[in-house]
Amino acid sequence: FLRVKFPKLLKNAVVRFFNHGWMLMMSSDEQTLFLYDPLNNQTIELPPSRAILTLLQSLFSTRQLPTTVYLLEFNLSRACPPILHDGKIYFLDVKGNVAVFDMNNVVWSLVIYSRCLKKRRLRKNMIIKEHFLIKPGGEEAIFAVFVVHDEIKVKVFKLMDEFRWKLVENLGDRVFYVSHTSAFGYTTDNKSKSMANKIFFPKIHDDNVVFYSLETHRYHSFEGDYSSHNCYNFEILNFATWVIPTTRNLQLSKELIWLELLLGLNRLITKAS
Question: Which has more confidence, 128 or 59?
Fold first, then answer.
């Protein structure tokens, strides 16, 4: 658990997404986007745009720098950070509905699948408080994590082919890390088996990160023996993000990266006009 002090250039900026060692950040006036590497203190300013950019994840869904950057602007009811899978961008809203944007089609289209989450999957009067979309590394499956009923219960679902959410009782060897700026998961190895079947949230108790165990159905602190069936006394870190340290060296200079992004934006504008 680290508290990072941002450079002056990023003062009052908001973290929108994080992946592969980079944060996507937006200025307070919502007019400028930045890429920021918190571990190496490196900042790259992206080309300006008049659009209010609410979703830009395709840049972060590949480990190589893209030749095209897609800027998506539309409203979805309290959508969490999207994921990219098989050339399609998936979105999840607070009601469990799923929207899919297919970048492979000649004609761009957004398809919204409603009523993906059957009411019987949640008890009566249970309201979803938080929702997260996850595609674990090395897997084709897509999962959703819902915090429901006054933040007491945590439910995990798997997206089926017919766009219906199937309840998952156990994550097996998987571990999930979720926040409002990034969410990811992976399969633990022999050295990290103790992390399996847990979901880590951007919440702390007495300066200790907490997680929810699908085995005990309780919240626990990463250090110490704290345990609780609710998270009433937690400090919620709304502007926190999970960071995976990367050893990948930047192969292009800032100027070349800027050129790559600018060319991608120009091609996008040309296609749209």
Answer: 128
